[in-house]
Amino acid sequence: MGCSSGGCSSGGCSTGGCNKKNVFDWFSNIQFASGVDEYNVVEISFRNGTHKGYFINEKRIDLLKEEFVVVEGSSGYDIGKVSLRGELVKMQMKKNRVDPNKEPLQKILRKAEQKELEIMDSFRSKEKEAMIRARLIARNMKLDMKISEVEFQADGKKATFYFIADDRIDFRELVKKYVTEFKVKIEMKHIGARQEAARIGGIGSCGRELCCSTWLNDFPSVTTNAARYQNLSINVEKLSGQCGRLKCCLNYELSQYVEAVREFPTNLSTIETEEGTAIIRKTEILKRQYLLTYKNDPASDYYKLTLEDVKKIVEMNKKGQKPASLASLAIKEKVVEAAEKDEDLVGQIQLKTIEKSNKKNNNNKNRNRNRGNQNGPSGQINPNQNPNKNPNSNQGPRPPHNPNRRNPNHKNNNNKK
Question: Could you tell me the pLDDT band of residue 388, with boundaries at 50, 70 and 90?
Answer without folding.
Answer: very low
